[in-house]
Amino acid sequence: MKLEGKVAIVTGAASGVGKSIAKLYADEGAKVVICDLNGDAASSAADEITQAGGQAIAVEANVSKEEEIQSLFEQGIKHFGTVDIIVNNAGIMDNFVPVGEITDELWDRVISVNLTSQMRMMRTAVSIFLEKQSGVIVNITSAAGLFGSRAGVAYTASKHGVVGITKNVAFQYAEKGIRCNAIAPGGINTNIGSTMNAPDPFGMERVMSGANNNPRNGDPEEIATVALFLASDDAKYVNGTVITADGGWMAY
Fold it and tell me: How many domains are contained in the chain?
């Protein structure tokens, strides 16, 4: 088992990519803290893992709030003793809104969930990792973090930010036993679209103009295998990089 004895916190883990990562980590021996805004769904995901013989607890938390992040770590450490791995997966869409139409409210909400939460999660994790001189961070960015118009302006900015902080953290803590990498998925069959309503017609038209070049959408399990690699010792010399997992879409 690649993660035997490790403790992992996975955000946005009640469904989609986060749930697949949590299940695979548990299958590989990790004790998993399933964090999600939807407490009932998080509990259901944790139950699935325990019924399959793994170890998991559910924590309902809004990662855009600092006090709830602190509570998340406190509960995880109280139950499992420590934290070795964090996966910053929680995220929301932005209705494809272009800069000419973006409101401060929408901008602040997307940046808070997609970017600021990852910084706060890493800030808390690093304080734990430094004591042990070891720890792994896996951030979920997006094709929108590498290209200019795979989403609206807020989502694009937030995911570009994730790429930047991933590289910054990786280099600055590389000599402290801490690794930090990111995954940039292409189109994945998940329910993240449920965070979107009334897409902006102009923005959507511009975003979708290149959609026909996508060879195929992926499944959450295909991202989970990349997250397992990055969290395991198989990737012990991999640090500060972004792995694209997109079926070849970004190769165009």
Answer: 1
